[in-house]
Design goal:
Strand 3, helix 2 and strand 4 form a beta-alpha-beta unit. This protein folds into 2 domains: 112 residues, Leucine Dehydrogenase, chain A, domain 1 (Rossmann fold); 194 residues, Rossmann fold (3-Layer(aba) Sandwich), CATH 3.40.50.720. It has 13 helices and 11 strands. The strands form 2 sheets. The protein has a 6-stranded parallel beta sheet, with helices on both faces. A 5-stranded mixed beta sheet has the order 1-2-4-3-5, sandwiched between helices. Bound molecules: nicotinamide-adenine-dinucleotide (NAD). Nicotinamide-adenine-dinucleotide binds next to helix 5 and helix 6.
Length: 348
């Protein structure tokens, strides 16, 4: 376990157990150097405790990088609650988790993630103030979609010299909370859409509302388009899909889109511009973090629009240095965290 922590430069790893509510939770805090660690809480089944720990550590590190590149005064953390077989009392379990978070005195702030609901955040909030995504805040997905929209424009600017959506062809994989909201904005901006989802009804809605073309889930990789936007699953850019792609660039909300870091190099070799996932999908984190700081909607919107500039700057750097785009994003995030660490050391 220590080896795993050292490999990912993790600051802290906490375990909480409360047999009376069946709570078994892991909270991984990657970094608090730039501020309290902010990151969602997963509530899903895990085959082994090791899987839960690995998930928490991997995701916590990603949150640190995302907050750093988004310029937010937060570090990265993630919680996983191992879902028991048949939940006896979900309210009691979440409230127990609220106590656990509170015992960390604000070093970790939780939020919604896979398997957790607004109701869970409300239960957690009964025992700690270190929680976001409660009922009064609302769904961050439209903010994520606004960030992806800004990112698609940055990709078009870089690949064609023009960021207008008019007449552009965008292929969207996944019409969920983010994908559908994104499709709405792209349609309004004059783009032509090809979309897919495993849910037939969502495809029907897209045909009706946006005049979108639809295809079978596996056929989306073969669509000849300007931008491919993965908004469903992770690891969709891999050895079997990459040779099929007929797009100039990739810009979507899904987390961990590349199956391995080496895929970033293969995209470069194929001259496909890739918007690093944790940069382009940071709109939701910006929404959550800045709401938590009680900042205005205008300030949040402004921050989300800035994703265009952040990506454009990374692309320029990649063009000049001939480096892989995803490597540049990682290096920049690491430098920001390292700089904050040095500043803290000098101040002490
Ligand atoms: P969601 O669950 O609402 O939507 C996912 C959609 O993908 C669903 O409609 C689902 O039916 C569809 N889907 C599943 N398998 C598919 C397949 N094989 N082919 C095509 N479609 C498929 O999730 P979401 O909140 O819209 O998030 C989408 C992605 O963006 C996820 O990877 C998520 O981790 C990431 N993300 C979301 C947010 C946010 O604010 N919601 C923020 C950051 C990252």
């Amino acid at each position: 376990m220590f080896k795993q922590m050292e490999t990912d430069a993790l600051e802290q790893l906490h375990f909480f157990s409360d047999p009376s509510t069946e709570l078994r939770a892991v909270i991984a805090i990657h970094s608090t150097i730039r501020g309290p660690a902010l990151g969602g809480c997963r509530f899903i089944p895990y085959s082994t405790t090791e899987d839960a720990i690995t998930d928490a550590i991997r995701l916590a590190k990603g949150m640190s990088y995302k907050a750093a590149l988004a310029g937010l005064p937060f570090g990265g953390g993630k919680a996983v609650i191992i879902q028991p077989n048949g939940i006896k009392d979900r309210h009691a379990l979440m409230q127990s988790f609220g106590h656990a978070i509170n015992s960390l005195n604000g070093q970790y702030i939780t939020a919604m993630d896979s398997g957790t609901l607004v109701d869970d955040m409300d239960d957690i909030a009964k025992h700690t103030s270190y929680v976001s995504c409660t009922r009064h805040m609302g769904d961050p997905s439209p903010a994520t979609a606004r960030g992806v929209f800004a990112g698609i424009r940055a990709n078009l600017q870089h690949t064609t010299g023009n960021n207008s959506l008019k007449g552009r062809h965008i292929a969207i994989q996944g019409l969920g909370h983010v994908g559908f909201s994104l499709a709405t904005s792209l349609h309004q901006a004059g783009a032509h859409l090809t979309v897919t989802d495993i849910d037939e009804h969502k495809m029907f809605q897209a045909r009706q509302q946006f005049g979108a073309d639809t295809c079978k889930p596996d056929d989306i990789y073969d669509i000849n388009c300007d931008v491919f936007s993965p908004c469903g699953l992770g690891a969709v850019i891999n050895d079997s899909t990459l040779p099929r792609l007929c797009c100039n660039s990739i810009a979507g909300s899904a987390n961990n889109q590349l199956d391995t870091p080496a895929t970033g190099m293969q995209l470069k070799q194929r001259n496909i511009l890739y918007a690093p996932d944790y940069v382009i999908n940071a709109g939701g984190l910006m929404f959550v973090a800045m709401h938590y700081q009680q900042l205005s909607e205008a300030a949040i919107d402004n921050k989300i629009s800035g994703i265009f500039d952040t990506l454009s700057d990374i692309y320029l750097d990649a063009r000049q240095s001939h480096q892989v785009i995803s490597d540049i994003a990682d290096q920049r995030a690491e430098q920001i965290i390292q700089r904050a660490s040095s500043d803290q050391f000098q101040a002490a």
